[in-house]
Design goal:
- This protein has a 7-stranded mixed sheet with strand order 4-3-2-5-7-6-8, sandwiched between helices. The protein has a two-stranded antiparallel sheet with strand order 1-9.
- Strand 2, helix 1 and strand 3 form a beta-alpha-beta unit.
- It has 10 helices and 9 strands.
- The protein is an alpha/beta fold.
- The radius of gyration is 24 Å and the shape is elongated.
- It has 2 domains: about 210 residues, Alpha-Beta Complex (Spore Coat Polysaccharide Biosynthesis Protein SpsA, Chain A); about 60 residues.
């Protein structure tokens, strides 16, 4: 029976201690393995070529360090050029169990998703292994990503264990996707813009002896700014450029009413405080009513946005997959 061609992309940067074990654990269902040497100071690409005999492995090299996002984009493009149907991305540090690969490929094969990603928060009894600061950071990032990407049903946005259908990957603007720490969140934003279906795959949290390079200051500054940028871009693309709906009116009208109520109320409160006179009840109502109505309109927009999560996989438009016997 014919089966789709599956490829694995492994970004390689300071992972020489673990990468051979990761490659060895990849099952026979995978046809090609792309190890992307992102100008690794340990020369991990050379290390793999010298010590790995797996014929499926192909080493790709960057002339400059492009970050994990750049490495994944290079792997995606190589896999698409080679006719692969499904592309799985795993890290080379041994924290992503290749035995779970079938769980990520399955929803794509069944036509339920274009892109799957891991979710370490699914089992509440097992997330105790996650460091508290990382747990808090992921919760905050998840909320920001829901707003900016439009995938309200997803969690754990920084999870790097993913799989994508090649037909969905072809729609991605490879030259625009964030290259470094913001890569996973930016991918979700880009996938929403092309109406791709994304599904979470439950997996256990696993932390070894690696040292995270992600700093809280980067989350607060760079991540917040980029999430705000993506949020407004998504609103413009989905609610004004490509489509117009009642929600296109609800959000700006709601925000305007809340701002009017706050500014009107604050100005009259200051005048009353300076004159030592009580604010008239009518003035209070003129301030409170727009705020309440504006909040209702904003909530109505959010309800529409949550219901608008893509549900039809874009790769179903193609009738055949590249296969091998």
């Amino acid at each position: 029976m014919a089966t789709p061609l599956v490829a694995v992309v492994i970004p390689s940067y300071r992972v020489t201690r673990h990468i051979l074990g990761v490659i060895d654990a990849i099952g026979a269902e995978v046809s090609r393995i792309y190890v992307v040497d992102d100008l690794c100071p340990d020369r991990s690409g050379d290390y793999v070529e010298q010590h790995c005999t797996d014929p499926r492995v192909r080493v790709l090299r960057h002339a400059v360090n492009e970050g994990v996002g750049g490495a994944v984009m290079t792997g995606y493009q190589a896999a698409i050029a080679d006719g692969m149907a499904i592309i799985v991305k795993v890290d080379g540090d041994g924290q992503m169990n290749p035995a779970l690969m079938g769980d990520f490929i399955g929803p794509i094969l069944r036509g339920e998703a274009d892109y799957t990603k891991g979710n370490r928060f699914f089992d509440l009894e097992k997330i105790g292994a996650m460091p508290p600061m990382r747990l808090f950071g992921n919760a905050v990032l998840s909320l920001m990503t829901k707003l900016s990407s439009g995938y309200w049903d997803l969690f754990d946005p920084t999870n790097g264990y993913t799989a994508i259908h090649a037909d969905a990957a072809r729609y991605l603007p490879f030259d625009k996707i964030s290259r470094r720490y913001f890569f996973e969140s930016d991918m979700l934003f880009r996938l929403n813009i092309v109406n791709a279906v994304v599904v979470d795959v439950p997996m256990d949290a696993s932390y070894g002896d690696e040292v995270s390079n992600l700093k809280i200051s980067q989350v607060v500054t760079e991540f917040f700014a980029k999430h705000v940028r993506n949020f407004w871009k998504r609103l413009f693309y989905n609610y004004y450029l490509r489509n117009m709906s009642l929600a296109s009116i609800e959000l700006p009208l709601g925000v305007s009413m809340v701002l009017f109520g706050v500014i009107f109320g604050a100005s009259h409160w200051l005048m009353s405080a300076r004159s030592a006179m009580a604010t008239p009840a009518g003035t209070v109502m003129l301030s409170a009513m727009p705020i309440l109505m504006g909040i209702q309109l904003i909530l109505a927009f959010l309800a529409y946005d949550i219901a608008a999560v893509p549900k039809r996989p874009i790769h179903r438009r193609r009738q055949r997959l590249p296969v091998h016997d």
